[in-house]
Each structure stands twice: as structure tokens, then as C-alpha cells.
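Researcher: I'm comparing several assemblies side by side, and this is the next one on my list. It has 624 residues spread over two chains. Same procedure as the others: predict the full complex and return the structure.
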Amino acid sequence: MPPSPRAMPPAVRAIGLVSTVCGVAASLMILASVLITCQMIFVRAVLGRSTVWQTEVVIYLMIGATLIGLPYVQKLRGHVGVDLLPTLLPPRFRRALAGVTLAVTAAMMLVMLWYGWEMWHLAWVRGWKSETVVAAPLWIPWLFVPLGFGLFVLQLAADLWLTMTGAPMDEKGLPAIGPEPAEEF
Amino acid sequence: MDPLLLGGLVAVATVLVLFSGVPVAVGLLIVSTVFLFVFDGPRSLQALPELFYGDLNSFALLSIPMFIIMGSAIASTRAGPDLYEALERWLTRVPGGLVVSNLGACALFAAMSGSSPATCAAIGKMGIPEMRKRGYPDEVAAGSIAAGGTLGILIPPSVTMIVYGIATETSIGRLFLAGVLPGILLVSLFIAWAIYDTWRRGAAGVALSGVRYTWKQRFEILPRVVPFLVIIAGVLYALYGGIATPSETAAVGALLCIIVAVVVYRMFQFDALWTVLRDSTRESVMILFIIGAAGVFSFMLSSLFVTQSIAGWIADLDVNRWVLMAIVNLFLLVAGFFLPPVAVILMSAPILLPIILSAGFDPYWFAVIVTINMEIGLITPPVGLNLYVINGIAPDISLKKILVGSFPFVLCMIVAIVILSVFPGIVTWLPDVVMGPEM
């Protein structure tokens, strides 16, 4: 059984909620890129006009969806890995290994967050623009990099807290999630 | 340090890190970061987010979530069982018709949904009980569906092929076409084995007799299966006709599939649509994350001269190209035992492709060989996802029986690899005819 929401501290619950909001945002961004691409084809093929902004916006939406989606996919346990070793270990070691991998993952994402922040800050301060007709300010798409990795770190920290405090775990040693993640909707 | 030795170190480190159970994308980032930090200095880490971002900065990548949405929308409907029933009603007079319609339904549904486990679940739920009821042995019933499900990554449209195309900068349209005839070859081998195995187990009499259906029954099911087939055909036609890029056609296909799911299958509830969108987002983000990380990984390999040295070293070894291909196959097979197809392709493509090309192999032919290897991984332990899906939908068939039933199909796939090696034209003929010879 997954931990009942009441047993979790408010911070862990809040992070889970933020991750879900991120997931909805990422889904909407993907849906928006479906619609924008279709609109682009319509404008070009049916109206016979040239299109300017669509391709670039769709690319930014995809990058945004990927990065903003990271914490939600973590929450759904959707990031695939080789889970042979964790499933073979006895429960105690499995939990310890999950703790280590979560901590290492969070450390790696902190590195990405740090340099991602530098990259974004540079674009912001110097006012860089994309080299296209749109000349979009690059700080907008680049913002997704520190934001996505930062939110990912939060969700990892929440999972790490659950692992360390002995919350029920799944066969990979990660904190168990509900049987149907959609239930919260 | 000698780049070749460094390459060996990277390989060992990657295996160790990945086996700890960290997500594949994170594992690739960790290995890349550590090696860049140690051998290229701390300053090189500044490029990490830019490399990651740069690899996602491509319109071609849009085709991945779009094809995933198409598959997910189709899989959320009753299209699978409908397709199975339609084929069953139409093929009932064919000897071994039930196996043929099961594997045919697997091939078609796998092509539409592009997902192996979804195919096993959709066709298997109807197909396995029906086959057992008519006297087919459990092994044949379970094995044929497990194997049939793997066809999704070979028969177009296939997300695995798209990822290969992006990783190797080859034409996605050509890759799709390259998968068609080998897909038919595999289905034929599967059907031949399933019928032979049924006969061998002494169930031929029961299995080969069909149930009769009226023409009315045959026609009434068509309106439910035709729409999706038309969309897929339309998407592929637009792709090969050069009317639009894969990303654009896939976006239109995704929208149409959602509309058909709502209109034909009456999927009006918000919940059902959200499930489609959520599952697509989960799958897409997972793959795109690996793509970004694999980009960083391949930058690390080439900036430390590992890629170039390995390619040079292999060329100097001067081994027979088929010995080389056998070794590559073995590597892919083992990697496929542990990792999902997309991850294997993204990690190994930057190293393997230069080697394959310099040995004079065709990149499209190689794509098909890689994909069949990945298919084998889907029905072999320890991560053979299809086996567990079958176990889930038919819990009274033991995992051992499923394994015994699936193993001959693995041999069929190995036979297919040998056939394609002897007759590479089976892969390259269709793309050459439709799109003209490659430049």
C-alpha cells in the first residue's frame, strides 16, 4: 500500500502537487504543439501563405514540455532504468540502493541546474535573441532549463525523504505510488 | 590517456552506473559529466546545459510525441479487439486462420499503436482465450501474441525507427519503408512456426477447423476498424509523397486519431482523454530526456576522441565484415536484454554507425537488424515486458510456459536476421522503388 497522503509531511505533498501541475503544463504544451503544427499546415497548404513563428514556437514548446515534465515523470516512475539489480536485492539493501541512486540523481540534476542557471542568466543580462525572423528573446526558452531541473530536484528530494523515512516501497526500492496515478484527478 | 583505453573505461563506468538502477538519461549524464570533468577540466561542464538544450532544439523531434499520441489514442479505444475480430471473421476459412488472424491483428495493431505491451494487451485479451478455447496449446497461444507484439517497433510507423533516424541522421521515411518487407517476413515466419507447433503438439484437427461467419457479420465490423487504418495509410502516404515532413504529418495524424477516438469510439469523458495525454507525455518526456542526455554522452565520447579511436581501431583490426556484424549483433542482443530499444539505439548509434558504414553496410539495412535485435529483447528475460503483460492477462498460463512458447519465436527472429543478411535487398528494395535510389 502506498503511504496515505495524510501520513506525508506537507512539504512532500506540496512538491507532489507542484509536480502534477508541471505534468499538466507539459501535457498542454504537447497538445498545443499538435494544434500549432496543424494550424501551420493549414495556413501553408490551404491559405497558401508562408508561416513565420510556428516552427520555432513548437520547438520551444517541446523543449519546455520535456524539462517541465521531468518532475511529473519522476513522480509517475516513468524514467526507465535497468532495474535488474534492485529487484534482486533483499528489501533492506534495495531501500539503501534506492536512497543512493536518488541522491546521486539529485546531485547530477543540481549540476545541470547550476550551469543551466548560468546559461539563462547570460541570455537574460545580454539580451540574446534567436537568429531567426522571429528573433525571440532566448531567455524565455532557456528559462525551462534551470526551472525544469530545479523542479526535478525537488521531486527527487521528496522521494528521497520518503525512502529514508521508511515509506512503503515498490519492487525497485522507490517509494510506492498509488495503483492509479490518475485517481488524484 | 590513450583514447582507446579511455573508451574501455567509459564502457565499464556506463555499465556499472546503469546497473545501479538510475534512470538511463541520468546515468548517461553522470558518466559524461565525470569523464569531462576529469579528462577535459571543470570548465567543460559549462557546456552541459547548452549541449542538452541543443540536442532537443530540433523540429524533427516533434514526430516522437506526435506518433506516441497517435498510438496512445488508438490503444485507449477498443480498436485492438475490433481489429482482431474483423480479421477472424474474414480469415476463418484460411488454414490455421485463427493464428493468422491473431498474428495479423498483432502486426496491424502494433503498426498503428507502435507499442509492444499495448499490442499484447489489446490483442491478447481476446486472442489468447479464443485460441485456447479452440484447442491451441497454451504455449502457442501465449508465445504467438508475445512475439506478435514485438512487430510494432519494426512495422511503420515506429517510434524506435524515428529515434534511429534522428540519432543517425538518416531519412525517417526511408527507414519506415525499410521495415515493411522484413516485417512481413517476420509475420510469415511466426505464422509458419505457430501452425507447425500446433500440428506437432497434436492439436492440428481442432485448430485448423474454423467457425463460419455470415457476410453480414463480416461487413458490420469494418466501419470500426477502417478509420484508424485510413489515418495511418494517409500519414504514410503524405510522408512518402513528400507533401510534408514526418513531424507535420504525425501532428495531423495525432489530431485525427484523437478525433476518431472521440467520435467513433465515443470517448467523451475528460478522464479518458487525459489518460491518453498523460501517458503520451510520460513516454515522450522519458524518450526526449534520454535524447538530450545521449547528445551530451556522444559529445563527451567525441571530444575525448573515443568515437574516432574505436572506429579507427576496428578498421585496423581488419576482421571479416560479417564477423564484425556478428559481434555487433551480440552486443545489441545483450544490451536489449536489459534496456528498452530507444535507450540502446541512442547510446550505441554514435559509436556503432561509423563502424558499420566503414565496413560497407547500408545504414537502413542496419536499422532493421538493430530493430529485430531489440524485438528479441522484448520477449526475453529479465526485462522482456511482453512476457509480463501476457502473464498479467492470462495468469493461469505459467511464466515458464510463456517462455517455452516464446523461445521458438526468438529463433524465428534470428533466422530472419540471417535471411536479411543473405538477401539485403528485402530491406532496400522497397525504399529504392518508392523513394528512388539513395544518393
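Model: For your comparison table: Residues 270-303 of chain B form the longest helix (34 residues).
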